[in-house]
Design a protein that fits this description.
about 300 residues; alpha+beta; 2 domains; two-stranded antiparallel sheet
Length: about 300
């Protein structure tokens, strides 16, 4: 098995589409640190807060200790942990990792492969991004972990045996919603070309979401990003949810985000299937953060 396959097949707890991106987040973080310091190590006590932040921002709503991936990633043979006692992780106990001076780093064979073939780092990162996160979050996530990817390294997924996206979905979804954002109605065009409009997966493609019109929404760039971050969601009756965790004090934030709470979505053309309940429920459970605000008055 090569390194791209190992990155694509990290062992993760999974059931019915539940998100568990803890190992991918740690591996992305470790690749970024290797990129900046190939000889460096990640002492648990020094990176714990960084990993907590990544899990809070890009992981599922339920909280998980960074000790979990720090220990369990060893089983995928891409990571090693040693303590003051020598090689080997003491487990997932935070106290044991802290008191034992636990240090993690990429596995020796992987470090050697990255030195021999520098482009491997970007290709591994691309596999992790494509398999666990929607495209709207890729650049933000790279910046969050400190990863710099060349354009050529972000063009196509290279993991073997990976299903392909249907490139027709964007046009199908935008046509279905008549080229307007389902949340705010934005419909900007430059001549005949839509500007700032995107096709969003409700159930993420990375978690089995199909490239079907009933799993898509036409959204403006702003609302697509907020939808994928869990700030916005869809409630019963296809009404817009806005997370209570979102804070925006400016008139623009109120107008473009908080004022959407409780509004009905702008649906697709008559005769076209709206978002399926199973996909809506997945997004609410796996992506939307916290409780929804009361409907704006």
């Amino acid at each position: 098995m090569d390194w791209l396959e190992r990155a694509a097949k990290l062992r993760q707890w999974s059931r019915h589409g539940v998100r568990a991106p803890h190992k991918p987040l740690l591996l992305l973080y470790a690749l970024a640190r290797f990129q900046s310091d190939a000889e460096g190590e990640l002492r648990y006590t020094a990176v714990e807060e960084d990993l907590k932040r990544l899990l809070a921002e890009y992981g599922p709503a339920r909280g998980t200790s960074p000790a979990y991936p720090f220990h369990h990633l060893v089983a995928d043979e891409v990571w090693e942990v040693r303590t003051d006692r020598g090689l080997g992780s003491p487990g997932t106990g935070v106290r044991e990792l802290r008191s034992g001076g636990a240090v993690g780093r990429l596995a020796p064979d992987l470090r050697a492969a990255l030195r021999r073939e520098p482009s491997l780092l970007g290709r591994m990162a691309r596999v992790l991004l494509d398999l666990h996160f929607p495209p709207s979050l890729h650049q933000d996530l790279c910046e969050a972990v400190g990863l710099e990817l060349e354009p050529a390294e972000t063009e196509a997924l290279t993991a073997p045996e990976q299903r392909r996206r249907d490139r027709r979905m964007r046009e199908t979804v935008l046509t279905a919603y008549e080229y307007q954002c389902a949340f705010c109605g934005y419909d900007g065009m430059l001549g005949a070309v839509p500007v700032g409009l995107e096709a969003a997966h409700v159930r993420w493609w990375a978690y089995g979401g199909p490239d079907d019109v009933d799993n898509g929404l036409c959204l403006c760039s702003l609302h697509h990003k907020l939808f994928d971050m869990g700030v916005l969601g869809m409630g019963e009756g296809h009404r817009i949810l806005v997370s209570q965790r979102f804070v925006g004090r400016s008139p623009a934030a109120r107008e473009h985000v908080t004022a959407l709470a409780g509004r009905p979505l702008i649906g697709p053309q008559p005769g076209i299937r709206p978002v399926a309940e199973t996909h809506r429920a997945w997004h609410t459970d796996q992506v939307f953060r916290g409780s929804p605000r009361l409907a704006a008055t």
